[in-house]
Design a protein that fits this description.
The complex is a heterodimer of chains A (about 425) and B (about 325).
Chain A: H1 2-24, E1 31-38, H2 45-61, E2 65-66, E3 69-77, H3 82-94, E4 100-103, H4 107-120, E5 123-126, E6 145-147, H5 156-165, E7 170-175, H6 179-194, E8 198-203, E9 225-229, H7 234-244, E10 251-253, E11 274-277, H8 286-299, H9 305-323, H10 331-340, E12 343-345, E13 348-352, E14 358-370, E15 379-391, H11 399-404
Parallel strand pairs in A: 1-3, 1-4, 4-5, 5-6, 7-8, 7-9, 9-10, 10-11
Antiparallel strand pairs in A: 2-3, 11-14, 12-13, 13-14, 14-15
Chain B: H1 3-21, H2 27-53, H3 61-78, H4 86-108, H5 113-133, H6 135-138, E1 144-145, E2 151-152, E3 154-155, H7 159-182, H8 184-194, H9 196-201, H10 206-232, E4 234-235, H11 242-255, H12 261-276, H13 284-298, H14 306-327
Antiparallel strand pairs in B: 1-4, 2-3
Classes of the chains: A alpha/beta (about 425), B mainly alpha (about 325).
């Protein structure tokens, strides 16, 4: 009887303590409570694990301290569902007294979490979600939002330029049918066509397509190259089926089509395929080599951009707290300080633009089979073949001109050369 | 007191305890309880079909999604529903849920059993496809943000005020649905569940009864959808996806189909495990899985079947004891 009574009372007492503690937690706190949202169960669990690994690696390397503050790192499973991510973010803020929450995976989750930061006046750092408008047309709505990763179109605008420079004239685009796909294709198409190229067809297979059989025969034969944007298991299936159908045209892909996360599961037919992203595990700098080795020693796999972006996010917070004198400066001041930090990160130099999205190097990468960083086996790596330094989310258009056009979508830019 | 009265009193006491205790247990618990109650309305609406009419539907998320998207579109695109017109949105949500069910019912009611399951599943997926593909209206994969909650003297942005509002809707839905299933109409539904042919021979228009039950379930589904949209502040295709329908079905079965309150209990348990236990331990999925399996194996009547089982067990014990008493002297 006593034991059951105690069992019943404990949560109640705990609840009361939390309720009482809430009011005083942030003032003069020595610890920095960071809430981290990533899918830990379900179809995206492996990606979520990469995200956590990256952040955790940085903490482990720095005695669990950022800028001198002890860190309480709380990971919550958002299950790749945006409404659950909102609930968990509120839990982190309301119950754990987190000063900031980080993460979310899908672009839709980013759109769901940003309003929570405004509502609770808590910092939200998007270390993965790439939805363009959060740091573009909807920027004013989210004063506590800052992004350490990328916008969907950011790497693919330079890729459009690169494709044009290669002399490709006509391109067929095939991309996953959702907002991220539209923004990726939109960025590529805009720059490619402004340079004189033509996107002659756009094909939209649904997200999670397992059989490209119905789509491959409809692809126009007179294209010089194929632009693909695949996500998750789609990226394994598409090159296999395309090459299997005997189509030898060059593929230029969106970043997630050839992410390090997918490479170990791919076979040799992807060698030579080109993609663009703000990170490659094969960047040949001492800092990246050290990162890849440390990551691999701990988790026995090559870091993906999901891991690197979160590692760098931790570094960015570290530098911000250092600059604030080793203590929590409050949300407004934190954002302001963080925006001013220049970082020499694993993936290259980073600066925030005035809409709180990084200006960063974009790497055009080619899949090659080789040995790297002293590992003894031949593996697939994303060799960097061209670097576009310090690329802004607005590419070369300038902020004003860029923001006048609507967000990239299925209908923008219009497919002028499709019949 | 009959068992029915005892049950009603127990539910009433539980409701009062819920209303008094939750607001004192921290903001996160308030949010979870609000979410669970919203979903409980959906589970109870499904129970009208599953438990009382014997129609296992896998498309209840369609009406839920209809209500949720209606609220989100009105708020985000037309700025309707952030003041007194919140009530207008609620009424519209109920009507649209009912209208959609009336339309879908024309197709679904032609089938029974597994075929009914398949048709409702397919119709539900139509709504999902619409939510996913009609980007200009629904925001596609990114969904729609509602921003702030309504303020009409009562500021619903306050989590506790909103909790009581949802609590009131939940209580009202429970009461209305209870009156419905106890009415002659509800009894007819149960007759159809037991033996449709016999009801037909008795002269009942069973198609019409089932059709009306389907529409009523749709109306309550629409209501829960509207509340869900305001609860989360965001609506995405994830809201309408097949797993939402499956969740509702599992919750109803877990709590006990044909008991109404069972759906609410199921919702509380599933939300408690999935959203509260998952903040404490990484192996919450095993607990949820084990509970599902154990319920199906040992409690086919759901958790609400426990009292009946206990009574049955006690009675058989008593009878055996009586037999022994009788047999000893002779």
């Amino acid at each position: 009887m006593t034991s059951t009574l105690r069992q019943r009372l404990t949560p109640l007492l705990a609840g009361t303590c939390i309720a009482l503690g809430l009011g005083m937690a942030p003032a003069g706190a020595e610890t920095l409570t960071i809430g981290f949202l990533a899918p830990m169960t379900g179809g995206f669990a492996q990606v979520g694990q990469d995200m956590v690994n990256g952040f955790q690696l940085y903490l482990d390397q720095h005695d669990n301290k950022l800028g001198g503050m002890d860190v309480k790192f709380i990971v919550e499973d958002e299950q790749a569902k945006s409404d659950l991510a909102v609930t968990k973010a509120k839990k982190l803020v309301l119950q754990d007294g987190a000063q900031m929450f980080i993460g979310g995976l899908l672009a839709s989750t980013g759109y769901a979490l940003a309003p929570v930061s405004t509502e609770t006046k808590t910092i939200y750092i998007s270390s993965v979600p790439a939805a363009d408008d959060l740091t573009q047309r909807q920027f004013d709505k989210y004063p506590y939002f800052i992004r350490t990763s990328w916008t969907s179109s950011q790497p693919h605008q330079p890729l459009g330029q690169w494709a044009c420079d290669q002399g490709y004239k006509k391109v067929v685009a095939i991309a996953a049918d959702y907002a991220f796909g539209y923004e990726v294709v939109g960025g590529f198409q805009k720059v490619f066509e402004d340079c004189g190229g033509k996107v002659i067809q756009k094909i939209w297979p649904p997200l999670g397509t397992k059989d490209f059989g119905p789509y491959i025969p409809t692809m126009k034969a007179d294209a010089d190259a194929i632009f693909s944007l695949m996500v998750g298991p789609m990226s394994l299936q598409f090159p296999k089926q395309l090459r299997g159908a005997g189509i030898k045209k060059p593929i230029i892909g969106g970043g997630t089509s050839y992410d390090e996360f997918a490479l170990p599961f791919m076979s040799d037919e992807v060698i030579g395929d080109v993609s663009a992203l703000h990170y490659s595990a094969a960047i040949e700098t001492p800092k990246n080599e050290a990162f890849v080795k440390a990551y691999r020693a701990k988790y026995s796999k090559v870091p993906s951009y999901y891991a690197e972006n979160n590692y760098t996010t931790a570094e960015w917070i570290d530098e911000t707290i250092k600059k604030s004198g080793g203590k929590w400066p409050g949300a407004e001041a934190f954002i302001k300080t963080m925006q001013g930090i220049k970082l020499d990160s694993v993936r290259g130099p980073l600066v925030m633009d005035d809409m709180r999205n990084p200006i960063e190097n974009i790497y055009i990468k080619k899949v090659e089979k080789k040995k790297m960083f002293g590992y003894d086996k031949d593996e697939l790596w994303n060799t960097v073949i061209k670097t576009y330094p310090n690329v802004s989310q607005f590419w070369t258009y300038g902020k004003e001109t860029f923001l006048k056009q609507p967000v990239y979508s299925k209908d923008f830019p219009p497919c002028k050369y499709c019949d | 007191m009959t068992t029915q009265t005892i049950k009603i009193v127990a539910v009433a006491i539980a409701m009062v305890v819920l209303a008094l205790l939750v607001p004192r247990s921290g903001n996160f618990v308030v949010l979870l309880a609000t979410r669970a109650m919203t979903f409980a309305i959906l589970a109870m609406s499904l129970d009208i079909l599953l438990g009382f009419t014997g129609l296992a539907s896998l498309g209840q998320a369609a009406y839920f999604g209809m209500g949720a998207y209606l609220a989100a579109i009105l708020v985000a695109k037309y700025h309707v529903g952030l003041g007194w017109d919140f009530w207008l949105v609620v009424v519209l949500g109920i009507l649209c849920g009912a209208a959609l069910a009336a339309f879908f019912g024309l197709f679904a009611m032609r089938a029974t059993g597994t075929y009914f399951l398949m048709i409702t599943l397919a119709l539900g997926q139509c709504i999902w496809g619409l939510a996913y593909r009609w980007s200009s209206m629904t925001g596609g994969d990114n969904g729609l943000n509602l921003g702030a909650r309504p303020d009409f003297g009562l500021n619903l942005s306050d989590p506790i005020v909103y909790f009581y509002l949802v609590f009131a809707f939940f209580g009202a839905s429970l009461l209305l649905l209870y009156l419905l299933v106890r009415s002659p109409f509800g009894l007819t539904l149960m007759g159809i569940r037991e033996r449709e042919l016999r009801m037909q021979i008795l002269g009942y228009n069973t198609w019409l009864h089932k059709y009306v039950a389907f529409i009523i379930a749709g109306a309550f589904g629409g209501l829960s959808g509207v509340l869900w949209a305001y609860t989360n502040g965001i609506v995405t295709p994830e809201t309408v996806v097949l797993t939402t329908s499956v969740d509702a079905l599992l919750m109803t079965v877990l709590g006990g189909a044909g008991t109404l309150i069972g759906g609410a209990i199921g919702a509380a348990i599933v939300f408690g495990l999935r959203e509260y236990l998952s903040t404490l331990v990484p192996w919450w999925q095993y607990v949820l899985g084990a509970i599902y399996v154990m319920t199906i194996l040992y409690l086919p009547t759901g958790l609400m079947g426990i009292p009946a089982r206990v009574r049955q067990y006690l009675r058989s014990n008593r009878e055996q004891a009586k037999k022994k008493l009788v047999s000893v002297p002779s």
